[in-house]
Amino acid sequence: RTLRIGLIPGDGIGKEVIPAGRRILEALPASLGLKFEFVDLRAGWEAFEQTGAALPEETVSILKSDCDGALFGAVSSPTTAVKGYSSPIVALRKKLDLYANVRPVKTVVSAPKPIDMVIVRENTEDLYVKEEKTYDTPEGKVAEAIKRISQRASSRIAAMAGEIALRRQKIRASGVPSIHKGPLVTVTHKSNVLSQTDGLFRTTAREVLADARFADVAVEEQIVDSMVYKLFRQPEAYDVIVAPNLYGDILSDGAAALVGSLGLVPSANVGEGFAIGEPCHGSAPDIQGMGIANPIATLRSAALMLEFLNEEAAAARIYAAVDANLEEGRLLSPDLGGTAKTEEVVQDILRRL
Amino acid sequence: RTLRIGLIPGDGIGKEVIPAGRRILEALPASLGLKFEFVDLRAGWEAFEQTGAALPEETVSILKSDCDGALFGAVSSPTTAVKGYSSPIVALRKKLDLYANVRPVKTVVSAPKPIDMVIVRENTEDLYVKEEKTYDTPEGKVAEAIKRISQRASSRIAAMAGEIALRRQKIRASGVPSIHKGPLVTVTHKSNVLSQTDGLFRTTAREVLADARFADVAVEEQIVDSMVYKLFRQPEAYDVIVAPNLYGDILSDGAAALVGSLGLVPSANVGEGFAIGEPCHGSAPDIQGMGIANPIATLRSAALMLEFLNEEAAAARIYAAVDANLEEGRLLSPDLGGTAKTEEVVQDILRRL
Ligand SMILES: CC(C)[C@H](C(=O)O)[C@@H](O)C(=O)O
Ligand SMILES: CC(C)[C@H](C(=O)O)[C@@H](O)C(=O)O
Questions:
Q1: Could you report the per-residue pLDDT of A25-55, keeping only the tens digit for each?
Q2: Is B66 in the A-facing interface, judged by CB distances under 8 Å?
Q3: If DSSP codes are grouped into helix, strand and coil, which group holds residue A140?
Q4: C-beta separation of B294 from B279 below 8 A
Q5: Measured distance CA(B144)–CA(B149) in Å, rounded
Q6: Cα(A265)–Cα(A255) distance, integer angstroms
Q7: Are residues B133 and B248 in the same domain?
Q8: What residues does the Isopropylmalate dehydrogenase-like domain cover (chains A, B) (predicted)?
């Protein structure tokens, strides 16, 4: 099977980590029967300056017509609003209907306080519909934004969460050591205040997860503020957390803090038969060009993309190589307290593939 | 000066901690020249069952016409939407225009990793306007909520944050040991996605804090997801954090996790010349009636209320007595790993007053 992968480095360290993602895919053993073709694509601040569009039409159309998946680095946002500029990754998620943002957060098994959770974030609606307006009143300006929650989007994200919980359980059952006994989905919302919107998310998720195919999955709920509290007090208790877009955004950064660095945390933006791997970190202008960015979030994002393209064996190889590098702890980038360069970390992981 | 204080225990452990709040106020030394009168008021789930209103009209009118401040315990929310029930504290904040929710989160100075921050949360708008609607579409139900941000509310909450930063600096300057060198306000938002609403919050806060009276206050910004990440990675860096309502709600629970228990964290809902102290914890049905609730969040909330009623000397007495109890660490409630009953903790703190 040949997979065509779009490469969208974006800005800043995106340009340093996406090439590492390409190299690990190319280095996968031939015995897996996978071939890759790559297409270089543009998006981000530099693209905006050069072409007037943060997400050039061409990038979208090539991804749609010509690719099986993609790797997206990171983009720099202007610090003040700039006319015509808006976040290309948010647009991409909507244009390709990548309805799930999947963010596994996990320590190595031997960590003093091991955690192993996946945050499954709805990726197309909520406040991210970006329908805003501003008006004047005698007391000054007032701005409003719409938070939109649909049964349809809530239903498919809950089903995705349930399926991920089952898949994780299957991997455990195959003998992979785990801190979890059984599959658990935690539905996060704020329906005590937002009874209609978050209420719809909650009841829809409950209904979907009550289906017979999820009979083995335990389901519980957390109000989002309490979820953040629990995330830090007893993170080991959580397996799969499902949340509307904005809470998912916040929770995944919170969870990332638990494993020590955003530089370790991957994500995948997943739709029907298409997935974009995306490290959770930003473009990090402060370390850009220094060759010290942690490539692990991107390498894991490449693996996560493969998982959702049904190449689980290939994904497992990458995860294992990354884990081996971390378990040994000899070649670590500065965000993890080490002194290794991006290139050294990549080579160490390629060697273990 | 005689202060009339409304007591609203609410449900669950609210009924165990609010009496402790009353006792510490009554126990303040006469030399402070303060007298208290108390009015018992109802709100919450039990009130709803008894009177049909979670926030009886009488409670609001007595607070408005007859009180200088109040202590609010906690209320139990139904787990599924109940017709006619909605959160009384959210309603109270709006009806009394208590526009600031102030949440100091602080360890004892001798903690291995001391932190000392205040979260200043806007308390009247954002998604808490609770303007929601639901409609049917061919693809199922869709619900929408309004997130409203006004220049007026953003402006006064930013000014409050600036003033709190200056007041904290004054206390430090008087010789109280602190981990902070100078006053810092961190403006939290998500204007990279919500350019109009959070954009308005951000620019308004920036403008207000650029005023000459805040010349000594350093101002920086954090995107809310990144703020949660930083909160856990380097909490010691933050002094005053100002945020719209929902982010403030989430951040204050996150910050509470850092000090080990919600049972330690107070809040005050502050308006013009009026303040309601409110522990950040909930009604905790699991431990209700066992006499083991941690009273400290309520005692600190009583002190915080006094601060905003310009009784700083009285507030300082309560803070010092609580800190002394925690520094010694002998009589601690179970949430802090101890075995002391509520009553024992209260008596230990009263003794130190
Ligand atoms: C850059 C920003 C628009 C984005 C988001 O909020 O989704 C980022 O925080 C993320 O989590 O991918
Ligand atoms: C109970 C709930 C409505 C409330 C809120 O969201 O404001 C609580 O979480 C708080 O922080 O006081």
A1: 999 999 999 999 999 999 999 999 999 999 9
A2: no
A3: strand
A4: no
A5: 16
A6: 9
A7: yes
A8: 4-349
pLDDT at A181 over 90: no
Q: Which of A22, A4, A3 is nearest to A14 (CA)?
A: A22
Residue B126: closest C-alpha in chain A: A144
Euclidean distance between CA atoms A275 and A6, whole angstroms? 10
**Sign of the CA dihedral running B280, B283, B287, B288:** positive
Tokens matching residue B251: 């951040």
The answer to whether A319 and A277 are in contact (CB under 8 A) is no
Chain B residues in contact with A250 by the CB 8 A cut-off are: 224-225, 228, 250
Task: Flag if A257 and B130 touch (Cβ within 8 Å).
Answer: no
Residues A332 and A250 in one domain: no
Report the residue from A145, A229, A249 with minimal CB separation from B147: A145
Do both B224 and B130 map to the same domain? yes
Contact status of A61 with chain B (Cβ, < 8 Å): no
CA of B10 to the centre of ligand 1 (A): 39
Q: Report the pLDDT value the prediction gives residue A176, as an integer from 0 to 100.
A: 80
Q: What is the pLDDT of residues A254-267, one digit of tens each?
A: 999 999 889 999 99
Q: How confident is the model at residue A84 (pLDDT cuts 50, 70, 90)?
A: confident
| A242/A281 same-domain check | no
- Clarify whether residues B155 and B170 are in a common domain: yes
Q: What is the CATH number of the domain that holds A160?
A: 3.40.718.10
Tokens encoding B333: 């409630």
Q: Considering only CB atoms, which chain B residues are within 8 Å of A264?
A: none
Q: Of all residues in chain B, what percent carry a pLDDT higher than 70?
A: 100
CB of B142 less than 8 A from some CB of A: yes
Q: Are residues B272 and B344 in the same domain?
A: yes
* Buried-exposed string A246-275: b where 16+ CB fall within 10 A, e elsewhere: bbbbbbbbbbbbbbebbbbbbbbbbbeebb
Please determine, for residue A277, whether its predicted confidence score (pLDDT) is greater than 90. yes
CA dist B250 → A12, A231, B11, B253, B272 (Å):
30, 12, 22, 5, 25
Phi/psi at B16 (5° precision)? -95, -25
Comparing CB atoms, the residue among B87, B200, B224 nearest residue A193 is: B87
